[in-house]
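Bug #77: duplicate submission created two jobs. Keeping one. Sequence:
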Amino acid sequence: MGSCSLNLEDVSSDSLTTELLRRMKCATQPDKRLILIGPPGSGKGTQSPMIKDEYCLCHLATGDMLRAAVAAKTPLGVKAKEAMDKGELVSDELVVGIIDEAMKKPSCRKGFVLDGFPRTVGQAQMLDEMLEKQGVKIDKVLDFAIDDVILEERITGRWIHAASGRSYHTKFAPPKVPGIDDVTEEPLIQRKDDTVAVLRSRLEAFHKQTKPVIDYYWKKGIVAKLHAEKSPKEVKDEVQKFRPNAHLMYDDD
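Kept job's structure:
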């Protein structure tokens, strides 16, 4: 069997140059530990990969991390699976432990973007305690602030073609014929999570649980409020204005 190591001759010089430039840029980036908070449809999923790449961070999405820990059968993953098999919620201690574990990966050397956690003040306090033991702290909390009415229009207008995954929006990207896929002329469907009733109950839970979390970090002077109703490009520009260690990076206008 030959060696599995990468033969540099097989890699294009463009790819090598790109990777070298990326590493040089990453070496000069300050460490950052960011939390993204926002309701469903606020654009966190669009921004987090861009933020991750821009600042050389790892993306810690707690749902994905839990599934990965369970699949890898790590000690914490085994405990999490036991709870899930009983239909119980995975404890905050376990989730914080899984975040702690994930932070030790080389890809997290420069910091992380945390998405989907903390959802409660108790979780935020536990996270702070865990980070404190490592001598680090959260630098910035990005609050994807958006009006519920705009979210409702954004989400309940989404329709998809089930077979291909092509998506449409009644207002922003309508099909040529309402309710019909442009390519196959088959009917479009709406995901069950994209209905007004489901969205309203998710938003109610989000506001009830998460507003206190934003208040908790606000008192620490690390919340940056984004105008998440703007276009992805404009939101990205807002994110880039925020320096990691400024005490408070937000002027309300």
